[in-house]
């Protein structure tokens, strides 16, 4: 997927004579916002489906258990899973978004200066080096 997008970016640079990596990065990063409505709709449908299955489960629960026991169990399981709130996601996005934009802008700028194969090799080698250094840091 990354290589196809790299080829498309290089096509835009070379064949269409468009030479603005910052604008191209801004447009491609802004298009990620299209995923948000789809995410919220799927989250709403998942919540609605879970609510209907919970009602079905309460009908199947034996008479030895009360509904309060079932509710308490499901709440404690959610706490153990580490449910993440929307505010925590927004805080993480505020930290990650500038780094994401800068890294994509630099990669798009590298596509302006080199070929797709060269930038792909550099990306994979740098990921390997970073992975080894992070592994070394985690060991110590």
Give a quick summary of the entry:
The protein is mainly α and 140 residues long. Helices cover 83% and strands 0% of the residues.
Description:
This protein has helices at residues 2-14, 21-30, 35-60, 67-81, 86-113, 116-139. The radius of gyration is 23 Å and the shape is extended. The chain is mostly helical and 140 residues long. It has 6 helices and no strands.
Tally of DSSP β-strands: 0
Structural class by SSE content: mainly alpha
Relative strand content: under 5%
Number of domains: 1
Order of helices and strands, N to C? Answer: HHHHHH
Helicity level, as a percent range? over 70%
Question: What average pLDDT do the residues reach?
Answer: 75
Biggest beta sheet attributes: none
Q: What is the count of DSSP helices, taking H or I runs of 4+ residues?
A: 6
> Termini, distance in Å?
35 Å
| Spans where pLDDT lies below 50 across 5 or more residues | 60-67, 73-80
Instruction: Evaluate the radius of gyration.
Output: 23 Å
Assembly type: single chain
Apparent shape: extended
Write the layout of secondary structure elements.
Elements: H1 2-14, H2 21-30, H3 35-60, H4 67-81, H5 86-113, H6 116-139
Helix pairs in contact: 2-5
Keywords:
140 residues, mainly alpha, 6 helices
């Amino acid at each position: 997927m990354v290589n196809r997008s790299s080829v498309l970016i290089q096509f835009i640079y070379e064949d269409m004579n468009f030479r603005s990596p910052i604008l191209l990065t801004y447009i491609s990063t802004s298009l990620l916002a299209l995923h948000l409505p789809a995410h919220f709709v799927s989250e709403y449908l998942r919540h609605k489906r879970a609510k209907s299955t919970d009602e079905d489960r309460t009908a199947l629960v034996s008479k030895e258990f009360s509904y309060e026991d079932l509710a308490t169990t499901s709440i404690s399981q959610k706490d153990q899973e580490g449910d993440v709130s929307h505010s925590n996601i927004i805080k993480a996005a505020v930290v990650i978004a500038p780094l994401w934009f800068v890294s994509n802008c630099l990669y798009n700028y590298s596509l302006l200066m080199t070929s797709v194969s060269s930038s792909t090799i550099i990306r994979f080698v740098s990921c390997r080096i970073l992975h080894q250094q992070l592994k070394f840091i985690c060991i110590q």
